[in-house]
Specification:
It is a single chain. The chain is an alpha+beta fold. The chain has helices at 10-19, 25-46, 91-105, 122-130; strands at 2-4, 49-55, 58-67, 74-82, 110-116, 134-144, 147-155. The protein has a seven-stranded mixed sheet, sandwiched between helices.
Amino acid sequence: MIRPATPADTAALLDLTAGTGFFKPLEVETLEGVLNDFFASNRDDYGHRAFVWEHDGRPLGYVYHAPEEMTDRTWYLWWIAVAADQQGHGIGGKLLAFAEADVRELGGRLLVVETSTTEHYEPTRQFYLKHNYTAAGRIADFYADGDGMAIFTKRLGAL
């Protein structure tokens, strides 16, 4: 079941994220601040959205998306993660479809995703291509030397 994230989810989501093998410790630390800010004000003041896929009381994945300031209905998918032991079972695709539907319902027209260009993130890039995202660009050495940014987009609303 997909439900809104609550402050009580924070520790489990941090553990889930760290356990995926994709996120660096600094990114997990950043997520903690993002979630704290989300529950403190970003949810209400800026329209940020966070949802958890839960089964039998255990979070198996989550998605975090938000409108991008100074744009016409563009949204960013900031975080999406699935527990390591649940990857490959369709949860990520369902979370992504949920986020897309949520953004559409809120009037969004474009969803943007950023990820790493390193070989380790090839499955992530293929995930977005599989779900009909367009590879919109790359920025070399963005995150670090040898670790660029791959940008994907998907149009959700009418022109």
